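for the record, two folds in this file. i put them one after another cuz i was lazy. first one right below, seq on top, structure tokens after. the second one comes after a little note so u can tell where it starts
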Amino acid sequence: MRIVDCHVHVSGHTDPDKLLSQLDDSGVDRVILLSQVERRSLEKTRENLLATKRLLEAGGDRISALAWVNPTIDGMGDLAAEALTEMGYSGIKIIPDHWFAYEQQLEPFWERMNQLEASILFHTGILWLFEDGSRFCRPVYLEKLLHYPKIRFAMAHISWPWCEECLAVMGRMRAAAKRDGNRPWQSYIDLTPGTPAHIRRQAVANAIAYCGPQRIMFGSDASAPDGMAWQKQLVQEYRAILDELDLDQQQTQRILAGTADEVFPPTR
């Protein structure tokens, strides 16, 4: 069974050969890395993107990446476009960092991403960093992206503790696509915890029942290079959950690899 992990952080210097060995140990065929976060500086963001670009160049079709950007930084639209069109990034990673997605100041950035038909992974749900930042990360604020129908976006962590709100946003986007046959269903769900162990199976089951496997992708939220044991553990746990839910092989394969390959395809 092919496995793609859509959500692994780069947390420091990472040797590509070691990373590939770690993927082999976890049974993961392809990883989508998130470049290191930078909250304030455009130049430091560029440095982070160039550092992760070296992993892309070394990893072939097994290592892809999302460019972690803060769209409120001046000039970030141009840098995000460069990441997508010149650096080999498969998409963008964003945490709403003390701003709401619906704010007028962000409209030029969303328009730029719309023109590029970008795929974006948003942190949604409780946030363990960035001071008191969780309130900015509720999934309902992403309804704003209805105005930018060429953007595809995934909500990480099933938006826990707002899992039902995440599903409501999924339904809202699905309804918009049904009403207008010319627009796509824009939204997806990234299964990374988030969800505590005692409710994880039910949250996954609810997401599958409401959205279908074609809208859901596996991710671990592991960190490279030193936190990859978590990836192996999550692969085993999610495979067990999907087995318990009695999905067929095609549905399981879609969640474990197909959705991520579609939304964040390899660029080389």
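(here's the note) second protein begins now
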Amino acid sequence: MKHYYEKKLASSRLQQVYDLATPRIRQYLQAELDHAIGHIKPGDLVLDLGCGYGRQFPELCKKAGFVVGIDSSAESLALGKEYLRGTTNYLFIQMNAKRLLFPDAAFNVALCLQNGISAFHIDQRKLVREAIRMTKQGGTILFSSYSEKIWEDRLHWFELQSEAGLLGKIDTEQTGNGRIVCDDGFTATTVDEEDFLKLTAGIKGIEISFEEVDESSIFLVLKRQ
């Protein structure tokens, strides 16, 4: 799992993942992005954690003043520069979310969408704290994960990825209850509201709320006070 998104699911292979999305998954992806954009104000400086090749950037950049995207895969970021040709108000930085090298209170909005909090496979509580640290007073931090209501469609999407050779064969015995396991070591989990509350327990100076979108996404919304 260590280098899965750096190499095996990087660049054009990551793009193929989204090309395989079914109509229901495309609806989920758009609804999630639309909801995130609704929290952005014109002129905001936005951080996108785990940006891949910048799939969401065309729409993010239309609303925000400037968008900074980090990803551990140099290959994905290189594809992103071609994908975003003509867009100027963004910056890609190769950086691992394990070690975020931004100063305190640098951004108006921090985004970690499409279950990145699970996909990164790092200390989730530390990631949440770091996202808060980097966000200005009055700013917003958004983490999203999957709603249990989209489980069947989500699993089907991963089955299509497996059939295309992007993932290993899905282990049907270990897969279930929001968790997808492949025989090549790939694992995708889910974070629910109870998990999010545990991750934010004891953190001061934030207002916490949850928003379910399209019966497909669960958003943890943190307001920096």
